[in-house]
Design brief:
single chain; 658 residues; alpha/beta; 4-stranded parallel β-sheet; 21 helices
Length: 658
């Protein structure tokens, strides 16, 4: 920290077989202000947040070094930890006699950045003046100026704030969102870093959909059932041996389990949940000196046989928990039907600074105390992991109503489906990939209205309609053995078609195959022979940067450039001549980009030009353009630097449109 040393103690907690290391500045050798740094996760002002992220990133790497923990790949979760890249560059420089650019090549190749946040406000940034005060010494250690360091956190040099997600992206070879849809959203959010590229071209931004830990979240009752249908030889314990197809085939054995056993298991878990809620509800509300009549009535109306719908998560306004309450008369009829009763269980907490989220919780609690909703709608106080487990295991339906596309992934629903809890959600986050017909319910993926109020009204109507016409009838339709066979079919479909694709085994296998192993291989190649490839690549980039702005376009010839009309199947020649100012023609690529749309062009196809031999000192490139699909397209020509050791185009993102 500027002008002082902050001392950090390291604690560890054994979480099963995993050691969780915790950084703590509440130490007597620190000033009171610095002791406060780690008091609260979201505590303090913007300056304290910067100090927290310095402790996490810079201090975290120092702590690992002290502990003797080494790693081939560093996985940066959110931009909060992005300073790990700077500390690693400093260490690599000192240990291997490399300069800043050479060490940065190693750090980039061995870092993966996962973003979990689909909204700009969730990405931390700091004012330039504040950032410079704290980070000047780090720039000195890196061997660069503070202004050079500042560029790592900006998409525009004129931007007055340093963005931590931009820093993480600039110091990572690959970036991933936490669901397929979130990967696409992330291309939009981080797109300013890659000016000249269309979002669909950002090959460095992909996704790994979140999964949840089956042994932690699946109820023991279901594990007994699953053990009967999942032979050990078909389910790999080692993630490297995990095969999604084999896992899916194994889980389809659920169809061999009797409807009676499925229903008895789910009923037992619901009954256990209701008993737990009754006890907890009474204990908490007695401590709060609530009206005894209200407590007694609420508990007495909780029904272990009623259709039970859960909504539990962090309360943020984009989660739209209010949708259920837009038509209270209609909702009252739904929950108070004597033949088909329904009860809703809410739980969760709001961010300490999220007044709107806190107000939403208060609103739901107020609604739950109205006479027509007592015991039919309950808000469970003091949300924690134990409550979460009971809810995802015991509820019949798990409800999620986020504003599209603001749910990056969402994992509470994944925990629910592992327990035969059917998912009912907007097609957002993981549910875009997870939804299967007759294995849950969905609201549409695309918004119908730009006006949020109108969209909320439409979605609210859809929720009521699906509850009244699909969910409730399926739950209460019984055969002659009093088993809801249609509902049990939905549960079986969920286990067979949804569950095996959203486990941590699948998630980790994806991370290893898509990111960890390829990045490890490339990092080892850059380090080999005393970092010769890293040195070579850094020197090549420096050379290109020095010459790039002076490259001249001497000639462009595009066939039929007057009418811009091309016949499908016919080749149309295109030629480009460049003065590369001493660069080899192999070091520069020329391409024609085809897109549709004007305001927001959508990438269609890329056509690479071929190098043509020349003796006039200029670089000549040619292309025979053949279109195969009819339509109206836009096209453009551009040049870019080429090198066999670049992992993707965004690793060295120079572009020049011609």
């Amino acid at each position: 920290m500027p002008g002082r040393i902050v001392y950090v103690r390291v604690w560890y907690v054994n979480v099963g077989n995993v050691k969780l290391y915790l950084l703590d500045t509440d130490y007597e050798n620190n000033s009171d202000a610095d002791r406060f740094i780690t008091h609260h996760l979201y505590g303090g002002d913007n300056e304290n947040r910067l100090k927290q992220e310095m402790v996490l990133g810079l201090g975290g790497i120092k702590a690992l070094a002290k502990l003797g923990i080494e790693s081939d790949i560093f996985h940066c979760n959110e931009g909060h930890a992005a300073f790990i890249g700077l500390e690693r560059i400093i260490n690599i420089q000192r240990q291997n006699n490399l300069n800043y650019s050479e060490a940065k090549e190693i750090v980039r190749s061995s870092t993966l950045f996962t973003t979990h946040t689909p909204v700009p406000a969730g990405h931390d940034s700091f004012p330039d003046d504040l950032f410079k005060i704290y980070m000047n010494p780090v720039a000195t250690d890196l061997g660069i100026t503070i202004n050079e360091l500042m560029l790592l956190g900006k998409a525009d040099n004129l931007d007055g704030r340093f963005n931590m997600s931009f820093l993480a992206a600039n110091l990572s070879q690959e970036i991933n969102g936490v669901s397929k849809l979130h990967g696409e959203v992330s291309k939009q959010l981080l797109g300013d870093l890659y000016k000249g590229f269309l979002p669909d071209e950002l090959d460095n931004i992909g996704y790994v959909t979140n999964g949840v830990h089956y042994p932690t979240w699946a109820a023991p009752d279901w594990k007994v059932v699953h053990d009967q249908i999942l032979p050990e030889e078909e389910i790999a314990d080692d993630i490297h041996e995990y095969e999604e197809g084999e896992e899916l085939r194994a889980w389809r054995n659920i169809y061999k389990v009797s409807d009676k056993l499925i229903w008895e298991t789910k009923t037992r878990l619901r009954e256990r949940l209701i008993e737990y809620i009754k006890q907890r509800f009474a204990d908490v509300h007695i401590l709060r000196n609530e009206n005894p009549k209200y407590i007694s009535e609420a508990i007495s109306k909780l029904n272990p046989r009623a259709l039970t719908i859960g909504f539990a998560r962090r309360f943020a306004t984009y989660k739209r928990a209010h949708l259920l309450f837009r038509d209270l008369d209609r909702l009252a009829k739904i929950v108070n039907n004597p033949d088909r009763p329904v009860q809703f269980l809410f739980a969760g907490k709001a961010h300490p600074a999220d007044k709107a989220g806190q107000d939403l919780i208060k609103y739901i609690i107020d609604i739950s105390k109205r006479p027509e909703f007592v015991g039919r709608i309950l808000f469970i106080q003091n949300y924690d992991m134990n409550i979460a487990k009971m809810l995802v295991q015991g509820c019949d339906v798990w409800m999620n109503t986020p504003t599209r596309p603001l749910e990056a992934s969402g994992t509470s629903g994944e925990k629910g489906v592992m327990n035969g809890t059917l998912h009912f959600s907007v097609l957002d986050g993981w549910w875009v990939e997870g939804y299967k017909q007759d294995a849950g319910w969905c609201l549409p993926l695309e918004n119908s209205f730009d006006n949020p109020e109108l969209q909320d009204e439409l979605d609210s109507e859809a929720i009521y309609g699906i509850l009244e016409n699909e969910v409730i009838p399926a739950y209460y339709y019984r055969n002659d053995k009093n088993i809801p066979v249609l509902w049990v079919d939905f549960i079986k479909n969920t286990f067979a078609e949804v569950v095996p694709q959203f486990t941590t085994k699948r998630m980790l296998k994806d991370y290893f195959t898509r990111y960890y192993l390829p990045q490890s291989s490339r990092t080892n190649a850059l380090k080999a022979d005393n970092f010769s490839k890293a040195r070579e690549l850094a020197a090549w980039k420096a050379k290109i940067l020095n010459i790039w702005s002076s490259i001249e376009v001497k000639n462009i010839q595009i066939s039929d450039g007057i009418t811009n009309t091309y016949e499908i199947g016919n080749p149309y020649p295109a030629n480009v001549t460049l003065d590369l100012k001493g660069l080899s023609p192999d070091e520069i690529g020329v391409e024609l980009i085809i897109a549709t749309g004007k305001d927001q062009p959508v990438f269609v196809k890329r056509h690479d030009f071929s190098k043509v031999e020349s003796t006039d000192g200029l670089a000549h490139y040619s292309l025979a353009l053949t279109l195969k699909k009819p339509g109206i397209y836009n096209y453009g020509l551009r040049i870019y630097p080429k090198h066999a050791d670049l992992p993707n185009r965004q690793d060295f993102r120079l572009l020049k449109w011609l």
